[in-house]
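ok so I'm stuck.
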Amino acid sequence: MTTVPGLIIAAPSSGSGKTVITLGLLRALRDHGTRISGAKAGPDYIDPAFHSAATGRTAHNLDPWGMRPGTVAALIEHSARDTDLIIAEGVMGLFDGANLPGRPDAGSTADLAAQTGWPVVLVIDAAKQAGSVAALVSGFANHRADVKVAGVILNRVGSESHEQVLREAISMTCPGLPILAAVRRDPALALPERHLGLIQAGEHDTLESFIATAGRTLSQAVDLDALISLARPTHFVRSSSDDGLQIPILGQRIAVARDDAFAFSYASVLNGWRASGSEISFFSPLADEAPAPDADAIYLAGGYPELYAAQLSRASRFRQGLQDAAARKAAILGECGGYMVLGKGLIDAEGKCHEMTGLLPVETSFAARKLHLGYRVVETVSTTVLGSKGKQFRGHEFHYASITSEADGTPLFDTANARGDHLGPVGMTNGNVSGSFIHLIDQVAT
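replied:
not stuck anymore, here's the structure
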């Protein structure tokens, strides 16, 4: 058990500004002299990269539905090394979860708060409300007895008089609940977005300047010592039998695609492979780099290949290197965007088809967008690069691409949603090459 205290920054809904508030707090605390680590609730590849940019430390996902409790505990333990405080950013609204029957908040940020014992600081977008904020805060503070709302940050406040009304209203319904800050509405505190969320941290030329501005804003608005005093240690305990592997080891020497088109890999997955003795190397398909010639496994993570389809189609060294790896029987796994690139062709937003690697008889399209979103429980249909038939995982699906054609073949997974509704077979496996639209989060405990 770690004695390092933690806090969760949550909100009533998405779009409340909790990511910018979290980034500002992380940087302000770092500048304050606190050894600070960030974390992200739920299945999110983008926000942790922003947290790492703000702190200079690796930020991990903590997913109370997708991960085994031992995995969450191990990642908290890792985050606590040489750290004074862990700040975890919530996902969506505080009580938005996997929507299990009778438990719509299962797997939510609230579940993470209850499991860890970390108090919640609630970020309220106050731009379009005044006295009504009292009912909102009171409802969230009293909704679950096992979730402690320890403070409030008012965001996008319009003026001093607006702030006064908000403070008075909350003090009447929730006396004693600290209002830690009232952050003014400021166009400079906005991050650009695209179809899967924020523009990735690595694509921001002025990210450091943005985070520094957010840090100064929050440093001036928040009593940081008061914020730190609200944090509490977790009561999660790591199991000594936990092997730390979320995805089985694909090989001894694993080449991982990494660039703006292939950015969606969890640091904890790669660290688990390293800890088990695998060597990890990186290559950039966008730079037309081939995987290491001695790699016995290749991991094509998700990302945005649909935005770079023409460039990937022209990347002859990358495509040939992947085909050579398949020919020498290297294990190849593609998730979501990686799955699309393993196919024969990728149709971009304008309807033009670009040739991909052709390792799986699948064609995908980004032209007719359809949202596919939700937690998944999957089981391998046959022996694959992930292990023997019947291997079970929890994962997440989030994409707008669709399959336009696929030949008969062996599916990779049989799939259900979080509620247990059967969704049928997904993905494809062809010898040593496997892929699907599912982002795997963790193995299912046996």
